[in-house]
Amino acid sequence: MTENKKDNRYDQGIEIMKGMMGKNGDKIAEELQQLHPDIAHLVIAGYADIFGRSGLEKKERAIVILTALIIQGATDQLYAHTYTALNMGLTPNEILEIVIQCTAYIGFPRSLSALKVIQEVIKENGLEFSKLP
Amino acid sequence: MTENKKDNRYDQGIEIMKGMMGKNGDKIAEELQQLHPDIAHLVIAGYADIFGRSGLEKKERAIVILTALIIQGATDQLYAHTYTALNMGLTPNEILEIVIQCTAYIGFPRSLSALKVIQEVIKENGLEFSKLP
Amino acid sequence: MTENKKDNRYDQGIEIMKGMMGKNGDKIAEELQQLHPDIAHLVIAGYADIFGRSGLEKKERAIVILTALIIQGATDQLYAHTYTALNMGLTPNEILEIVIQCTAYIGFPRSLSALKVIQEVIKENGLEFSKLP
Amino acid sequence: MTENKKDNRYDQGIEIMKGMMGKNGDKIAEELQQLHPDIAHLVIAGYADIFGRSGLEKKERAIVILTALIIQGATDQLYAHTYTALNMGLTPNEILEIVIQCTAYIGFPRSLSALKVIQEVIKENGLEFSKLP
Amino acid sequence: MTENKKDNRYDQGIEIMKGMMGKNGDKIAEELQQLHPDIAHLVIAGYADIFGRSGLEKKERAIVILTALIIQGATDQLYAHTYTALNMGLTPNEILEIVIQCTAYIGFPRSLSALKVIQEVIKENGLEFSKLP
Amino acid sequence: MTENKKDNRYDQGIEIMKGMMGKNGDKIAEELQQLHPDIAHLVIAGYADIFGRSGLEKKERAIVILTALIIQGATDQLYAHTYTALNMGLTPNEILEIVIQCTAYIGFPRSLSALKVIQEVIKENGLEFSKLP
């Protein structure tokens, strides 16, 4: 019984991850299972509880996620979630704009480190920053 | 000449601050001048260069600013900028939603500290979180 | 149905909070509800999922919690959770020992800030650090 | 004279490091000497003053150390000190439990980054997380 | 014997603290003793080992200390150590200059929070920032 | 017109970067342009506004920069800016001294991570720490 309830939040979380991360959703769920089923359940059910809420539009939620990772300097996750941000509707130049706004809070070095990771992902997806304002 | 150029970015910054912060814009500019004219110029001209850019909608920029302050635990500025966020078009419940999303990145204690400050400002402005989903 | 499942994790979380925090458990649950029912549910159900796990002894879990708050400099929560730590079986001198060990990771200033808060709570509870080794 | 006193704390520190780190103790002392004798002395005598104190059991001290490194995101040291934690008596599943508890304070991304490093060290030592509760 | 050695580093540390902090040295040593003799010994002997080293000029060491506290946002210690910085030879405008340089690494909000604390201490000591470049 | 004013701060920034970074100045300006012209302009004009100020001697400013990067754990930039610090007049042993002083604020692990990066750059430049006090 408890088990079924758990699975319910887990299954919802999987759907939400796929909706956000597109092609990467299953791969990341699989990686979490490889770490340990308990951490996979905690994180994926957390997606149901947190990322799956209404109250922000999809693109707005992507802005919160990307800003959080840039401000924290979470380079590993920034790599994975720049694609998520693109998949949730942010354009490369909107992402650049978020990084530039973040310089007001983390200064230059950490903004530049974030932008290097982001640029790499944008190129890997065949996209680029527009150079004209 | 150099002086005029400086004043130009400063004057633009003042306009952008007022547009973002509403009634608080002049007060904060005055406080910055009281600290020191050089830091006032640096910050306010920075508003022209960073906060005054196009590329994000007003409300989207407010989401970046608020997320950055919550993630950093910048309580002092969060107090001032929750009003800014309301002034830039975020509703109390959208702000709550940003805090809840941030728990995925900073955990419970720092999210709750942020929410206490935010709730205080929301009440001071005669607003409240809606309790019904 | 969904509601019932939710309440189940919430009710478990309330029990776990009371077990950990003693007399403060109900007060903190009430404060969370005052902030917003959604954040109260997220945090308290999180207690069921995280704090309520087996795998560490009660006192060992208290060491993780206290260390985390000291390292983060989460002063507000440190105030509340020093009592929790005492309630979960740590002695004042074991708490002092944790702070001293933490100086290896955060240096002197933040350790001393933590210790001031901790000492205050210990005194309020009619306890004191033993001065003899 | 001063020299002898210094060597005394240094020698005590070496013994404490070996007791904690097992086979890695001499290697890390050597690496510190390669950096600079002054930093080696400062760190190793610090082991005598801080890590060598009584007041926490060996396994409890290992919990403080591991929690501190996870919360700080100190990936380099986490790699070295996961072995230390195993050597001081923590099981792989107790370490997993510490990481899960830490998600309450640092959220998902940094917990997952820590767990990846930890899992690698656990595998290198021919150990694994138990998957059954 | 061990006791004497300990006292030696402690006594050296007291002298170094007094040299750096002027009138505040004895007061801070007393506060540390009030927290606990063990933490007092650890911190004050640490002054002998770290702050008492040669290799940087007095004013240069003050720059490291002040920069570290500003970057960390260690407001409590910044209050105490702005006086220390003045006592070690930094002028109010050099301190302002350090804060302005730090905006490149921590952005505006945390620089402004630091500057507010610093300005307060400077005023309490009957000093002020020069407004002319 | 606006364009000319912008170029003026940019050109000043380029000169200041070259003065600080020596042979690396042009390379880093080029890398910033490769990221995006807007971020290049923001950072390089920021060099004119912040790094180009008078009020600290060259070597003193280098101490602020290096301390900031060590305290933040900004490894990427520390790699680039250790050379900058040498170019601005700090000796290898003065840099070591800054790291040792920083242990009082960030503890051992992050100081050691910084020192490894710094030692690598010092060796690449055919220099070394002096081992004799």
Automatic annotation (TrEMBL), chains A, B, C, D, E, F:
Residues 37-120 form the Carboxymuconolactone decarboxylase-like domain. It comes from the Bacteria. Coiled coil: none annotated. Pfam families: CMD (PF02627). This is Carboxymuconolactone decarboxylase family protein.
